[in-house]
Amino acid sequence: MRTRAVYGCSGTALTDEERGFFAETKPWGFILFARNIVDRAQTRRLVDSLRATVNDANAPVLIDQEGGRVARLKPPEWKERPAAARFGALHGIAVEAAREAAYLNARLIAHDLFELGINVDCTPVLDVPIEGANDVIGDRALSHDPAIVVDLGRTVIAGMIDSGVLPVMKHVPGHGRAMADSHLALPRVTTPREDLSMADFVPFRGLADCPMAMTAHVVYEAIDPRRPATTSPKIVNEIIRGEIGFGGLLMSDDLSMKALDGTLGARAKAAQFAGCDIVLHCNGGMDEMREVAKEAKPLEGASLKRADAALGRLAEPEAFDVVAGEARLAELLRTAA
After folding, report:
1. Which of 253, 254, 277, 281 is labelled catalytic?
2. Is the pTM of this model over 0.85?
3. Residue 52 CB partners (closer than 8 Å, separation 6+)
4. CA–CA distance from 71 to each of 32, 68, 79, 112, 119 (Å)?
5. How far apart are CA 166 and CA 183, in angstroms?
6. Which of 39, 48, 135, 183 is catalytic?
7. Is 175 a catalytic residue?
8. Known catalytic membership, residue 183
9. Is the CB of residue 81 less than 8 Å from the CB of residue 71?
10. Following DSSP, what letter does each residue of 122-171 receive, concatenated?
11. What is the pLDDT of residues 89-131, one digit of tens each?
């Protein structure tokens, strides 16, 4: 039986220790970072070797390929893609052009991933940033307007799925007001719940049919002043599953981020207790992964059903002319420029 975890690995090929650990612990999936990637052939070999450890040719292999400053596939091997904010800027000029551009960009990103065997992309970012917030979100956000985030987020999700890659919306229920980078510290948001509901929650509520979502390591003091969303049963059950209405697979953001405290095992246990279906550990550190593995529960029950439902939305890519898509996207982005 697989366990409720996604792990990274340390380099461009698996070590014997990593092979043994993954075969023993049987995680649900894996995640790649720039440290794991050299070129197409090497990346495809690594993806195949990860899946071989759990004897599953369709095991989820994740990546953060948003475009802009968050991109693990980099030039010159892969084409640089624009940050999400470019599409929001275009939306202010020409709505239909922005929708088409966001869709084409998602298809082109997913095309690159599908070639490598990567079947999950941790995008779109549906956070709604406010003026003065920490720049950890910044131009990764589609817009400062929740309605535009919903509009363009929908096309990104469609573009991913149409190209055979599953999207993960993040960071539910909203990271846009954070005054700290959750990689480095725990952000605390003091905004009243009604204001959060009318702005931050709107994109996630509007796109609640996305197959997967990733939590925010953010405390929302009006809802749960003690725990960040990732480890808060109140936020997961009352807000994410309740008010937002998300019924898909819920994964934690990276457990090794400094926003969380306690041991890695305690973090994994708390996130699962709160209601995360999957816990995510990214840095490839074996000692930390072993701590997480001690607490990662078997993937069964409602979490297994949600995982199977998400993977059930994987399909062969629809026909797509990549050359024509690149040319059309460039033309549309010139409108924004």
Report:
1. 253
2. yes
3. none
4. 11, 7, 10, 12, 16
5. 24
6. 183
7. no
8. yes
9. yes
10. ---B-----TTS-TTTGGGSS-SSHHHHHHHHHHHHHHHHHTT-EEEEEE
11. 999 999 999 999 999 999 999 999 999 999 999 999 999 999 9
